[in-house]
Amino acid sequence: MPVDREHVLTEAAALLTRRATTSMDEIARAAGISRATLHRHFAGRDALIRALEEHGIERFARAIDAARLDEGDAAGALRRLVHEAEPVAGVLAFLFTENQLFENEPVNAGWAQLDARLTALFRRGQEEGTFRVDLSAIWLTEAFYGLLGAGAWAVHEGRVARNDLDHSIAELLLGGIRRSMEK
Fold first, then answer.
1. CA-derived radius of gyration, the chain
2. Full-prediction pTM beyond 0.85?
């Protein structure tokens, strides 16, 4: 029976986000495979973390593409991005907190490209007069990652319903970054 690599990586990210010391045995059990099978696909913990990095970059890039960030106004594009990124939120939550473990040039370049695309969306919102200009676009990018990760954790722990996640993240983020028209 073939191993669903995406399922294994998703389970690994969920466990590692909660407890960084999760063993390979625990990850294998959560993924429904044997430890030997897990080791055939990932030679060890380092290889698993590297695979999570690559997986997260690939999945978030697809989410950004699907969100069509250049279409419509910046607020609408941000709502679409939150919706498209929700399925990869758990992996991003892990990587957001642990990605310093095994940085290398290809991984850094991948994240830099994604960060640049997201930061450009926030800059566009600022230029449109929709988003606050007293908060840097780079900070808004970091805040996006933080909220997405917190949302994934809250859903995983059963504190927030998955169906409420898109709305909760988008409204909290937009409510905080919208430019006030009052003086």
1. 18
2. no
